[in-house]
Amino acid sequence: MRYMDDSVVMKRMTKRITFNKVWKTLFFLATTFALVMLAILLYRIVTQGIDYLNFDFLTNFASRFADKAGIKAALVGSLWLMGVVAPVSIILGVGTAIYLEEYAKKNRLNDFIRMNISNLAGVPSIVFGLLGLTIFVRMMELGKSILAAGFTMSLLILPVIIVAAQEAIRAVPSEQREASYGMGATKWQTILRVVLPAAIPGILTGSILALSRAIGETAPLVVIGIPVILQFLPDNLLSQFTALPMQIYDWAKRPQEAFQYVAAAGILVLMTVLLLMNSIAIFIRNKFQKRY
Amino acid sequence: MKKWKYLTMTAVMGSALMLGACGSDNSTQNGNNTETNAPASSGQDAADEKLQGSVAGDGSSTVAPIIEAVVEEYAGAQPDVKVSVGVSGTGGGFEKFIAGETDFSNASRYIKDEEKAKLEEAGIAFTELALAYDGLSVVVNPENDWAKDLTVEQLKQIWIEDGKEKKWSDIDPSWPAEKIVFYSPGTDSGTYDYFDEVILDGADLVSSATLSEDDNMLVQGVAGDKNAIGFFGYAYYLENKDKLNIVKVNGVEPTNETIETGKYSPLSRPLFTYVKNSAIKDNAAAYDFVKFTLENSGDMAEAVGYVRLPEEKYAEGLKTLEGLK
To answer: For an interface test with A, which of B18, B24, B26 has the most A Cβ atoms less than 10 Å from its Cβ?
Structure first.
């Protein structure tokens, strides 16, 4: 038996160890890069916007005076918008996912549908804006209303919700379904009482993350032509309204420097709403997630 | 355990329904609000005529600051009239005006013939009302010590697309042989159209120009590059005087006075709103809002960095408006 030549091994070892270290550092840097960028962004926005962020900012309408400008109309408008987007997109999305996972047979047509839902998820948001403008605003004559914008945004996030719900439903073990059938339950009873309860955490997490994308999306609203200058709150689904990202964009374009800070304050409000929604998603995931 | 699942299930379904219901909930609440407001306002009805209704507009981002100020003031005078104005640019605004979606359309240039033709086709009669003056300002970097006064001819030479790379020395041999960097408002803006028409006679603007709908981007671009040149509305120059050098055009610098008297020619331009005649006739709120706009846009224009029209122009506009009613 030949003994190992320590010196040869060590010679190769150092090389391998350094090689390993280099990659480890690279991957670590890649991870921190995103974090550092986020930190810089947050620092910049907070230092710029914090002075303008107070209670008045939340309760005032927009104004030509930077220190009187408020975000009320946009904040309320965005909440109304979510009031349309959430039910429409979740009901349609979860419905589609249930059909595709539980009812649809595995054939060419259904494969085609599945593939195209994934394709739809990759369509740029501005294209959905054009679709919304043509169909909801002009053909269905909904005008530049909450309903028209809400439908457009729902279409935008629908694929994301469908895919998330499909994954969640697929993760429910088939033994559970079989047990349910074995007890004499119908398909609908099984879906309602076994599959959906088990899939809820995944569905909700996906849906909330999709909704937070919708609340920050600007391009479709710009294309639809949502107004930014208004001094009233919407009072029904066909009202004119404005939304947070539109208002922020409008402020950022102003010549007066003070409005750049007002815009930063607006971004803080938008980010707070986003963080709230995301933490609800994380909370639901941690609280109800079960592994089989 | 099962109970939990049930609970979460019902929570989801419930929240979906709730959110849906939330909409109607709010609406009834708000509906109540307006109802509680309504008697109060109808009580004053005889005194200062509280109106109700809605008015929609869209258009130029250059005119937007004036309109925002007017809308803000108007909300104090007529709180129940819902005025909403979009900022899609002059061209984008006209597109919506043609589609019949708006009652008025703000513009930082005259309406184009093709837009007129489309409005005619759509059966929309309109009236042009001037609101204020703007001096389209040509600016360079503060370190630029050569281009202080340009003639219209030189401006044309600088901005026209001729297929060649342009250096400052091409315009005047005594200037540095450095590449010119261009910043211009985007093609949807009336500012672009106006400059293109007045300076370039409609010829193509140099294709290497950086176009942006956000004028602050142009300010930053010119402020950051010694060889840059750009143009935009007077208000943006006023707010960034310390970062930019203004260029005299044919020896005249844009100031409130030279813009108002028209001495700053050809770049001093009127800002307009185009109103739909039928809206003025049929919608008391629209008439009232436009009237309020004409009465106040002089003050508001000055407040946000533009130049007021001579008083008789506003009087003329009001007279035209009366005629439409």
So the answer is: B26
